[in-house]
Amino acid sequence: MKSVSIKDIFKNKILINSIVKVQGWIKNKRNSKSNLLFIDVYDGSCVNTLQIIVNKNLLVNKNHEIIKSTPGCSVYVEGRLVSSLNTKQKFEIHMYKINVIGWVKKPDLYPMSSKRHSMEHLRNFAHLRPRTNIIGCISRIRSSVFYSIHDFFHKNNYHWVASPIITSLNTEGAGDMFSVKYSKKKENKKLTYKNFFGKEVFLTVSGQLSIEAYACALSKVYTFGPIFRAENSNTTRHLSEFWMLEVELAFSNLNNIIEVIQKMLKYIINFILQNNKNDLRFFEKTFHDNIINKLKNFLETNIKRINYKDAIKILKENKIIEKDSIYLDIELNLDHEKFLVDKYFKQPIIIQNYPKSFKPFYMRINSDKKTVAAFDILFPKIGEIIGGSQREERILYLDKRIQELKLNINDYTWYRELRFYGTVPHSGFGLGLERLIMYITGIKNIKDVIPFPRTPKNANF
Ligand code: ATP
Ligand code: MN
Q1: Residue 430, exposed/middle/buried by CB under 10 A (0-12, 13-18, 19+)?
Q2: Which distant-in-sequence residues (6+ apart) come within 8 Å of 391 by Cβ?
Q3: DSSP letters spanning 139-194
Q4: What angle is formed at CA 255 by the lines to CA 250 and CA 260, rounded to 5 degrees?
Q5: In angstroms, what is the span from residue 148 Cα to ligand 2's centroid?
Q6: For residues 287 and 442, what is the distance between their CA atoms, to the nearest angstrom?
Q7: Is the CB of 385 under 6 A from ligand 1?
Q8: Minimum-distance ligand to the CA of 240?
Q9: For residues 386 and 355, is the Cβ–Cβ distance under 8 A?
Q10: Cβ neighbours of residue 456 under 8 Å, at least 6 residues apart?
């Protein structure tokens, strides 16, 4: 007999009247007056539950285990698939055989009972919360987003490159890093954490410098992996461990890379609209939010672009910052960004050409010598989702910046050599995967869009 997934049933992939086997967990159970038992089963393949109809008269043993089963029990069901007369469901299973595989011990204490729980409460049960509809929907969308990103780049002839997680470089030049120490199992006098690699090493804050090396040979590359930042900020948009997509494109400038981003974001969002419609509908119902329309609108428009200088001008005009301040001296903070994106434009925006003093050493100096060819992409209610730039490909300018910022030039020998041998204009960006998922799902706290969040004082589970 065929073991089927509930998703395939709802996609009309299984013939009506065929005998099927379904395996999953009980979400709800109801008795009817007519001696029928209705059991809603989910298997995680989609947000839908499948209704199993048990005719108690047909149970040989009146104390059949299914009578005592409770939400959360895992079950094995065999039966006939029929189209449902009930308007709420399209399908149901008329049970032939049903077995409880795993019981819920002490059902009264089961933390994932079918009543609605707050997201805060669920965070205390990171191991059980995937059983809820909401975390189930997020997980399926997260998986689809990953897939669609690989799909987009594969179709556009990019190559996936693995950048190292252990590194001695701090790409951003600023952010605090986690150091990697060698932890001794046995007494080993010769090895200490310092000399294991011969130098101090950290968990990576970005794979960008590494993939630049590959872009300068394979032309179109990306890396996609976990990123670690020891930011001691407990916000709704920062994690200590998160996932970042980083893309690097040779023979390109700022406009070219922004065009790639527009196409990529539309591809991802269209993919989610096509493949995760029911998950999105669940969010709409739960948050009373028009998420599907928001995403459809996104497909219709290009993200608005403004220069940093003009962003500052808008803030001055609206009395958010002092009228006579000089734009090169003002670093946009979160409140400024919020004003621009949530109140003024009310749509995603790209801010470009930042003063060089607010950006890392590797960004390309513009001809004004004051700004760099850099951009941030801000989204309503979330803030920055993507940061990128054209890279400085001219060795003289690069060295000048390294000096200005008092970085140790010896740390960047290999990176500088990329400019020494066959240099090429190139650009790239980094996208925070969790923040993009927050935008797509409407989830407000980043801790809820990654399975086991790591934040200051929290590395449980
Ligand atoms: P922010 O100012 O919001 O801290 P950032 O300027 O440090 O962001 P980048 O270094 O440009 O960000 O990193 C690229 C992208 O990675 C960001 O646009 C964001 O989407 C994501 N990101 C950065 N830091 C975090 C974090 N701590 N947790 C989750 N995502 C992050
Ligand atoms: Mn940051």
Answers
A1: buried
A2: 212, 362, 363, 364, 426, 427, 428
A3: HHHHHHHHHHHHHHHHHTT-EE-PPPSEES--TTSSS--PEE-PPPSS--TT--HH
A4: 65
A5: 25
A6: 8
A7: yes
A8: 1
A9: no
A10: 232, 233, 234, 240
| CB-based contact 435:382 (threshold 8 Å) | yes
pLDDT digits (tens, 9 = 90+) for 98-156: 999 999 999 999 999 877 889 999 999 999 999 999 999 999 999 999 999 999 999 99
Least confident of 84-98, 124-138, 152-166, 340-354: 84-98
> Is the Cβ atom of 239 under 6 angstroms away from ligand 1?
yes
Which domains, ranges and CATH numbers included, belong to the chain?
A: 6-110 (2.40.50.140), 129-164+215-448 (3.30.930.10)
- Cα dihedral angle (418, 203, 139, 435), rounded to 10 degrees? -70
Q: Which of 256, 267, 268, 262 is nearest to 389 (CA)?
A: 256
In sequence order, the 6+-apart residues with CB closer than 8 A to the CB of 315 are 321, 336, 339, 340
Q: 380, exposed or middle or buried, with CB in 10 Å at 0-12, 13-18, 19+? A: middle
C-beta of 8 in contact with ligand 1 (< 6 A): no
Ramachandran assignment for 381, one of left (phi > 0), alpha (psi -120 to 50 degrees), beta (any other): left
Cβ(246) – ligand 1 distance below 6 Å:
no
pLDDT at 321 > cutoff 90: yes
268 C-alpha to ligand 1 centroid (Å) = 20
- CB of 259 closer than 8 Å to CB of 238: no
Q: What would the pLDDT profile of 41-82 be if each residue is shown by its tens digit?
A: 999 999 999 999 999 988 888 888 999 999 999 999 999 999
Contact 400, 372 (CB under 8 A): no
337 lines ligand 1 (CB under 6 A): no
Nearest CA to ligand 1 atom 23: 432
| pTM > 0.90 | yes
